[in-house]
Amino acid sequence: xxxxxxxxxxxxxxxxxxxxxxxxxxxxxxxxxxxxxxxxxxxxxxxxxxxxxxxxxxxxxxxxxxxxxxxxxxxxxxxxxxxxxxxxxxxxxxxxxxxxxxxxxxxxxxxxxxxxxxxxxxxxxxxxxxxxxxxxxxxxxxxxxx
Length: 146
Description:
Elements: E1 2-10, H1 16-21, E2 26-29, E3 33-37, H2 40-50, H3 65-74, E4 80-88, E5 91-100, E6 103-111, H4 115-123, H5 133-136
Helix pairs in contact: 2-3
């Protein structure tokens, strides 16, 4: 079974009409976390819309300037995390980074385990007893956006 997600996570209150104006899909998760789905085509469209191209870092894969501009428009003054999972049959990696107003709060990192939990903790997610932050908000059950 695979787990492949590319998303932005935030605990900020999102304006539904603003999100819709960018043609984005969101999922509400526990602890007031909202995930915003991302793919390469959306990142390219954002880059064209903002006329702001280029990567910020190699990880997570969709860590581009246009994504940072999007979040500045949707959630000014609020932190956000860029998340990526790529697992199949229990092996693979995840990557995450956290930013606020153009400043790096958690440096981009890729590993088999850990980066997403670190990012969620940075956003203020409180793990439930016996669970990490990843499972507390239900990411373990969200395998893809389909």
